[in-house]
Here is the input.
Amino acid sequence: MQVLVDTGRMQAAFAAHIGVMMTARRSESPRVLILGAAGQVGVELQRSFAGFGSVVAVDREAFDLADPNETRALIRREKPDVILNAAAYTAVDRAESEPEVAMAINGHAPRTLAEEAQRANALLVHYSTDYVFDGTKREPWLETDKPNPLSTYGTSKLAGERAIQGVGGRYLIFRTSWVYGPHGRNFLQTMLRLAGERDRISIVDDQIGSPTTSNELARATRTIVEGVLSEKYGSMHEWAGLYHMTCSDAVTWFGFAQAIFARAPSNLNVQLPELISIKTEEFPTAARRPLYSVLSNQKLFDRFGVRLANWQKALDQVFSALNSAP
Here is the structure.
């Protein structure tokens, strides 16, 4: 008796079986590659993903993100299941005089990462910024709102978003804002330093945003990555895309500074300076900033059920970490 075999169906069934096996293996012990390990988000990602499979963290001393050949070689050598890109050119004002460097790191490198992630069927997580918007809106920005960056930095970050979207595949882009934390160079650390140097500090009081901690970003990222790898959120077509991810509520830089000094513990030896409220036009900078860059996080919650803490509570958590540091 002759038996006809549909090899196409057999191959598809086998591929599906292998795909299930790969998913299970990834959810049990994924290999995670963290780029930008020494940065404030990179440090917290290492802490958050500790014990989550095998974690490899590299910084700019180990490879040059602006060099596509080095980037490709790194990913092909490490063979990650998850790539967390916390590396970026973040010198907002200096970017105005170094547009090529900013674009190479923020705009072009994400395409290389997306291409290599797709080649390896890996999940790429990339962080972007509220500075892709011009600040003319007076209600929280949605993912569907049209970007219009005012600065070279914002332009380069928008280029990176679009590069990843153009490649497609298994990716998550998280736009965030006013990032700070217990590590690295950020607004909070600058305020604490200036308090030891000055009796009076002038701070802009007409730019409104949502201060977001590196701790909260890392925590939310781990929750979502775990869910994606375990297929909790369905297929790639259901979850891949662009999301806003910030702490809730909003404040001006001046109000943020007030909250910082109201919480600064005595053991940090911080003298409370006099804070002077000024307008953006009184503090000229090389790069223009959006006056209103609050982001709506509704899409993030609807898709993943994840909310970050409000910025006041998150600030308390940062000071708790600083207070307990040796």
Summary: Residues 7-28 form the longest helix (22 residues). The chain has a mean pLDDT of 90. The chain has one domain: 14-324.
